[in-house]
Amino acid sequence: MNEAFDRVRGVRELPLFPLPVVLFPGMPLPLHIFEPRYRQLLSDIQASGTPLFGLSYFDASEAEEGRDAPPVGHTGCVAELVDAQPAGDDRSNILTVGLIRYRVESYVERGDPYMVARVTYFEDDSEDENELQKAARDVSAMFMRIARAMRAINDERASLPELPETDPEKLSFLVSSAMEIDTELKLELLEMRSTSERLGRVHDLLSQAVKGYEDRARAHKIAKHNGHGGKPPDIE
Question: Over the range 34-50, which residues count as b (16 or more CB within 10 Å of their CB) and which as e?
């Protein structure tokens, strides 16, 4: 992903948009922009020719008393503006895509109505490619088992998702983003600098869930044929 580093080259101070959302590199994120300070952020990055801002996880309802910003040292993901459509009253619907992760070194006061941080960017460390490919195949197979079960449960006929199995890092981010897991786990996965470690963690999580999904799919199939499917199993 050296291309991502090229896209942020020279961008040392990054406007931040704190939201209770965890964004991963390569993943799309639509947003509705309505607060005046973030309308200004959008206008500024469009005018600058560098349509980038930082998406930092922050939930004001869960924050410590007196804290109104994510702490220095936290990890976030650069969001690249792909499209912006006016929605009336100076509001906008925008589409962004995660680009590269960053660590906030400090906050910068420069008179903007939104937060600005000085950041450093990082990607995963280099690892043995053969081991990564094997881990990616294992994760892909487990993910597809759950996808097939969910399709059966929901009576869907759509095609199964195509996974970037030949790009282990991208696969690890896609699966991390798609899983319904606690925010704390998503943040841990975002912060990891080892693709193999991230793939191993998501494989463990998928393994814990797959039997429950497949049991539900079988019960649903029996019920559709006037059988007695029984109570679907609980999934931890």
Answer: eeeebbebbeebeeeeb
Mind listing the pLDDT tens digit for each residue in 26-73?
Answer: 999 999 999 999 999 999 999 999 999 999 999 988 766 657 889 999
Q: Rounded to two decimals, what is the model's pTM? A: 0.88
Geometric angle at alpha carbon 187, from 145 and 27, rounded to 5°: 60
pLDDT tens digits for 155-166?
Answer: 877 777 788 889
Whether 121 has a pLDDT exceeding 70, the answer reads yes
* CA atoms in the 13 A half-sphere facing the CB of 205: 20
Q: Residues near 81 by Cβ (< 8 Å), separated by ≥ 6?
A: 42, 45, 46, 51, 52, 53, 94, 95, 96
d(CA 22, CA 44): 23
Q: Which fold has domain 2-122?
A: 2.30.130
Sequence spans of domains, the chain: 2-122, 129-224
Distance CA 81, CA 118 (A): 20
